[in-house]
């Protein structure tokens, strides 16, 4: 079976407030980044599926005959509209298939399992197509910037397009194209399945930002775009301390179960921080006093995240080094290492920013001023993709 080739991308995200609390039904405020994950899907003529994931040194090819062990009749029953609930039995079979009998999956196995789950599910009712997918991301993997969600959103968009479940939105003369609301919801629900495989118990905020882009308020699966917010200046610092979102989300859950009367008020307080932040961000105009409130909210939330057990000495260093320059920082995403964000005021002098960045780099961290609010998932013509990214994607 031949499918149409396609090239898609989805943005990473940063969470301003509400990470972890959002998993427990509280509000999160998140915004897309202008750093993206790209996926090229190419039809092939042989009976195999190739997966090239150069960011994580993972390259696999699977011959269709191998899929026999997955018991096709079982996954034949899966219908596309059932993208709300993960098929635990299929996940178990796929874990065996990728060679994990116990313990945790590594990056490569997790990514492979996520691809196979969505691939087998969206093509469940028909013939499996031979294809090659290649993924390249500008996002650091596993650093709190939503790399897993950008990956899952790209997989969902490309595979649903290939299956003909959503249309190929790109016309001949378009550089980029997006999908209608209904198609985006479809992409988002399959991306959520991908996130569930990678994270265990995701809130869905990361895949929502990857799908819709811009700034969102997310509460219990409800997504509200926030369009009237100012363009914030944010410094991103990657401590390069590796961590796993899945393990950190599980750690917070254990703590809540162990000390409910202590931890629930912390989650309520984070909720109130998100509400207050949203209120301040929608004031017009935003004054210096408003920025002082935003900075205090960042400090309070960072303390709360430490109380939840998702801090790290490297993140403390980011907070200390930036505070020495009068700037306020918190971790973003799951924490435990990974990235921190630092709020810059519109008038913050570029020399202050440069000096702060140098101090952070001297600590061994990567640091850059980012632009936020990139578009959600989109389809590309090759000429709309940066040459260096296209070159990597074309290598496979
Ligand atoms: N470029 C990529 N290629 C293939 N798989 C990727 C890529 N980037 C991320 N992944 C998948 O995402 C997993 C990392 O997800 P994880 O949720 O731990 O980090 P994150 O999404 O970057 O951070 P956060 O969830 O805190 O925002 C990897 O194990 C891999 O399965
Ligand atoms: C830690 C968490 O809140 C954000 C990860 O970016 C997990 C989630 O919401 O799924
Ligand atoms: Mg993730």
UniProtKB/TrEMBL annotation:
Q: Can you say where in the cell this protein is located?
A: Cytoplasm
Pfam family of the protein (one): GHMP_kinases_N
Cellular component terms per the entry's GO annotation: cytosol
Q: Which GO terms describe its molecular function?
A: ATP binding; metal ion binding; mevalonate kinase activity
Q: Note the superkingdom of the native organism.
A: Eukaryota
Q: Which residues form the GHMP kinase N-terminal domain?
A: 126-209
Q: Does the keyword Lipid metabolism apply?
A: yes
User: Which NCBIfam families did the record assign?
Assistant: mevalon_kin
Q: What is the protein name given in its UniProt record?
A: Mevalonate kinase
């Amino acid at each position: 079976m031949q499918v149409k080739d396609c090239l898609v991308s989805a943005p990473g995200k940063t969470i301003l407030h509400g990470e972890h609390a959002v998993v427990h039904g509280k509000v999160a405020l998140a915004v897309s980044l202008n750093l993206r994950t790209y996926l090229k899907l190419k039809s092939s003529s042989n009976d195999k599926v190739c997966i090239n994931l150069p960011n994580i040194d993972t390259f696999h090819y699977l011959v269709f005959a191998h899929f026999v062990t997955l018991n096709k009749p079982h996954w034949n029953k899966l219908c596309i509209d059932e993208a709300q609930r993960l098929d635990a039995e299929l996940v178990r079979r796929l874990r065996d298939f990728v060679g994990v009998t116990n313990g945790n999956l590594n990056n490569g196995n997790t990514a492979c399992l996520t691809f196979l789950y969505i691939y087998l599910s969206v093509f469940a009712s028909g013939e499996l197509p031979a294809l090659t997918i290649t993924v390249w991301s500008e996002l650091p993997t596993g650093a709190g910037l939503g790399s897993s969600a950008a990956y899952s959103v790209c997989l969902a968009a490309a595979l649903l397009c290939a299956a003909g479940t959503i249309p190929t939105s790109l016309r001949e003369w378009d550089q980029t194209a997006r999908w209608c609301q209904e198609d985006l919801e479809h992409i988002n629900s399959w991306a959520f399945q991908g996130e569930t495989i990678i994270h265990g118990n995701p809130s869905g905020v990361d895949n929502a930002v990857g799908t819709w882009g811009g700034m969102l308020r997310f509460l219990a699966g409800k997504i509200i775009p926030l369009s009237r917010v100012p363009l914030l200046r944010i410094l991103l610092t990657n401590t390069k301390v590796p961590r796993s979102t899945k393990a950190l989300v599980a750690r917070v859950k254990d703590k809540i179960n162990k000390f409910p009367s202590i931890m629930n008020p912390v989650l309520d307080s984070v909720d109130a921080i998100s509400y207050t932040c949203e209120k301040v961000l929608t004031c017009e105009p935003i004054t210096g006093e408003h920025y002082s409130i935003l900075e205090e909210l960042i400090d309070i939330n960072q303390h709360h995240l430490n109380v939840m057990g998702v801090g790290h000495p490297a993140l403390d260093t980011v907070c200390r080094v930036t505070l020495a320059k009068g700037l306020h920082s918190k971790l973003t995403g799951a924490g435990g290492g990974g990235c921190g964000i630092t709020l810059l005021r519109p008038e913050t002098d570029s020399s202050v920013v440069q000096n702060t960045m140098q101090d952070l780099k001297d600590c061994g961290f990567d640091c850059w001023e980012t632009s936020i609010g990139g578009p959600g998932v989109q389809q590309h013509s090759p000429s709309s993709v940066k040459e260096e990214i296209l070159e990597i994607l074309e290598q496979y």
